[in-house]
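Support reply, case 0932

Customer input (verbatim):
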Amino acid sequence: MENYMFDFDGTLADSGETAVLATQATFKDFGLPLPSSDQIRGYMGIPIEKSFPLMGAKTELPAMFTGFREHYQALEASQVKLYPGIKEVLAKLKDNGKKIYAVSSKHSEALRRNLELLQIATYFDDLVGSDQVKNYKPAPDGIDVLLERYELDPEQTVMIGDAIYDIQMGHAAGVKTAGVHWGAFDWEAVLEQKPTFTLTEVQQLGEI
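Our regenerated output:
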């Protein structure tokens, strides 16, 4: 592969508790029943614009999205941690002349802030957040933006993620896909999507 497109949450960084705590705090702020940790984790991989209504939020959605992002930002410095070995793999890929991108359901501002917080932003050639696409994961828009912007060969491009939505997005965009075990909430569901590569160790990222 020449072009590596990474999901963020559950793929590059362990941020699961951050999203759970921020989501529950937001629902509490608006007097709504709190979604369970498993329910929240099950929707990770799609943006809050899609997941919040699925968890029972029907009104005041723009205010809830703002509230979530404020809670998330307050927690991320202490909660979001890079998976061991990720930085070394990114450095190896970069040294080998590979192109590295981030495609996330986060807003691009938060995505960029998180990459900088974890001191890996310099490895990325570009990023696409939820605010840069018309259709969210699992639609192919995030990948398509980068394929078109840089005239990338889909056959030499791999979408890497821990959730079914990442694999579905990759299939829809016509690129290779890699499911990663270390951050997956439901690994069996990921395997059912038939990713091109299945990775159980971070170091395997440098071998595809």
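We compared this against your earlier run and they match. Two observations from our side: The beta strands are 3-6, 13-14, 81-82, 99-103, 126-128, 157-161, 176-180, 197-199. The first strand starts at residue 3 and ends at 6. Please reopen the case if you see a mismatch on your end.
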